Amino acid sequence: MTSTALPTRGQLERTLSQRVQAFYRTQLGHQPSRVQCHIAEGKVIIVLEDSITKPEQLLLENGQEELAEKVHNDLDKALHPQLSALIEEVVGVKVIDVLSDATFDTGRSGTIAVLEESPHLRESQSRRTREDSIAGDDE
User: Fold this and answer.
1) Quick check: 139 pLDDT over 50?
2) Per-residue pLDDT band at 136 (split at 50, 70, 90)
3) pLDDT of residue 125
4) How far apart are alpha carbons 76 and 44 in whole angstroms?
5) What is the rounded distance in angstroms from the CA atom of residue 123 to the CA atom of residue 59?
6) Residues β-bridged to residue 31
7) How far is CA 54 from CA 83, 88, 112, in A?
8) Minimal CA–CA distance to 72: which of 47, 53, 87, 48?
9) Residue 3 has what DSSP assignment?
10) Closest by CA position to 100, among listed 23, 44, 39
11) Cα angle, residue 46 at apex, residues 6 and 64 outer, rounded to 5°
12) Of 11, 115, 128, 136, which is most buried, counting CB atoms within 10 Å of its CB?
């Protein structure tokens, strides 16, 4: 594969964000207001804004925080295999572990997918230009 056929980090992160948002909408009938995905050092970090579903909110409103947390954690674990497959499809690298947690106070949840290796990426033009100018400073 030529380096121009490889995606940039930004392209992969955007694609992954869109796919993850659609995944949650399809699987849970709930669409987080924002999905941010970052790829760094063999990991995919996913942050979901407004990730708490209506049933979880209902439980919270009725003083059932422990049950809401259990429901959220059980749903998360049930989704991990499909989420891992989605990440593998987009980044082209096997997911070897998935860690996740949620904070009901803020409505955010986060997931870290640990990859078998870092995905092969094409450097963006701006990064190459910046690195070239830094290398030029050494001469």
Assistant:
1) no
2) low
3) 64
4) 16
5) 46
6) none
7) 21, 29, 24
8) 53
9) G
10) 44
11) 160
12) 115
Token pair of 33, please? 């207001």
Q: Which two tokens stand for residue 108?
A: 């955010």
Q: How many residues does the chain have?
A: 139
* pLDDT in the model for residue 126: 58
Q: Record the tokens describing residue 8, joined without a space.
A: 């940039």
Angle between helices 9-28 and 65-91 (to 10 degrees): 140
Single out the residue of 80, 23, 24, 79 nearest to residue 53, CA to CA. Answer: 24
Which of 4-13, 26-35, 124-133 shows the lowest per-residue confidence on average (mean pLDDT)?
A: 124-133
State both tokens at 3.
Answer: 């380096």
Give the pLDDT of residue 23: 96
At residue 6, the 3 state secondary structure works out as: coil
Mean pLDDT, all residues of the chain = 88
Contact at 8 Å (CB) between 6 and 118?
A: no
Helix (H) or strand (E) holding 100: strand 95-103
Question: Residue 116: in which H helix or E strand, if any?
Answer: none
pLDDT at residue number 127: 52
pLDDT band at 5 (very low <50, low <70, confident <90, very high): confident
Task: Convert the pLDDT of each residue in 103-117 to its tens digit.
Answer: 999 999 999 999 999
